Amino acid sequence: MAHRSSTINVMINAARKAGRGLIRDFNEVEHLQVSLKGPADFVSNADLKAEKTLIEELHKSRPDYGFLVEERGLIKGKSDEFRWIIDPLDGTLNYLHSIPHFAISIGLEREGKIIAAGIYDPVKDEFFWAEKGKGAYLDDRRLRVSARKKMLESVFATGIPCANRATGHGHHLKEQAELMPQVAGIRRFGSAALDLAYVAAGRYEGFWERGLEKWDIAAGLLLVREAGGLVTDFESSNTMLETGDIVAASAEIHTPFIRALRNVGPLT
């Protein structure tokens, strides 16, 4: 059985408590009071309640840590060394359309480096977690990225730019057109956190998207790395948390994958 540190146990307990609330509300999703804050970017009561639960539970166990959260932004803690980076509901659009594919994402940052990660899918009751230097796990099972070596045998996930993105649609279509003849399939499931967790678990060979927020990817990038994968931006650099641009894959697939994306040229 995998040894879970006290930090991981704190994350699991907080995620499961928030997840129970999300499931209760999901079962009555048509009755949710939803406020519109922008095209394809909705905030539900469930999202806000989950965020409140996560902050309360994590603060109870680690009272000095700060937070970076989707709705409230930056919450300063007594310690500048540690902060939680949280997305209480990644896959909000799925949730509001009664599509059972969404997650809670929690990353722990220490002086700018992600050192612990948890992504919880409350529908499937799957908890993906990792600590820096200690590997990645799904519940108690050690995770490894896919061993497939050929692009033609590989499945990739992506995110399609939403209506509130001024640019990127045409470029994204060119990327898909470039990749489609080279791969087994491309999927778009609507949760970047779970996409990254699935790369770590070997369910996908790779994932790419642009313009994501820190809370979308903080936990996932550590999971992929601890499962033996590579995570970079589109220039093979390490700016993902700053730019929100991410390419994640197994080590074998990352090079041909990123080469294919670069063939399309830079986003203009």
Rg value: 18 Å
SSE series: HEEHEEEHEEEEEEHEHEHEHEH
CATH architecture of the largest domain: 2-Layer Sandwich
Q: Quote the average pLDDT.
A: 90
Quick overview:
The chain is α+β, with helices and mostly antiparallel strands. The protein has helices at 6-26, 45-61, 92-96, 169-179, 192-200, 214-226, 240-243, 251-263, and strands spanning 34-36, 42-44, 66-69, 73-75, 82-90, 103-110, 113-121, 126-131, 135-138, 141-142, 155-158, 185-187, 206-209, 229-232, 246-250.
Write the layout of secondary structure elements.
Elements: H1 6-26, E1 34-36, E2 42-44, H2 45-61, E3 66-69, E4 73-75, E5 82-90, H3 92-96, E6 103-110, E7 113-121, E8 126-131, E9 135-138, E10 141-142, E11 155-158, H4 169-179, E12 185-187, H5 192-200, E13 206-209, H6 214-226, E14 229-232, H7 240-243, E15 246-250, H8 251-263
Parallel strand pairs: 3-5, 11-12, 11-13
Antiparallel strand pairs: 1-2, 3-4, 5-6, 6-7, 7-8, 8-9, 9-10, 13-15, 14-15
Helix pairs in contact: 1-2, 5-6
